[in-house]
Design goal:
By secondary structure, the protein is an all-alpha fold. The chain has helices at residues 23-35, 40-52. Helix 1 (23-35) packs across helix 2.
Length: 68
């Protein structure tokens, strides 16, 4: 039996893209991602996908257990 690796499930084949944006733009993007309940990575991925016409599959987050 294969051991399960800790951490979240892979989102598939990915590469890192680094950019430098004006602070006001980066802060606005972070705020909008948080407002939508998304990571900044997923928010930017969806923006790029919409502009380029390429599907972007956002992995659903796992439900958090409520504390007693």
């Amino acid at each position: 039996m294969e051991r399960r690796k800790p951490g979240r499930r892979s989102k598939g084949d990915r590469t890192q893209v680094n950019t430098r944006q004006p602070r006001v733009l980066a802060e606005a993007a972070e705020a909008e991602a948080a407002r939508r309940g998304m990571t900044l990575t997923d928010y930017i991925g969806q923006l790029l996908a919409g502009d380029l016409g390429i599907p972007y599959d956002v992995q659903e987050g796992l439900p958090l257990a409520k504390s007693a």
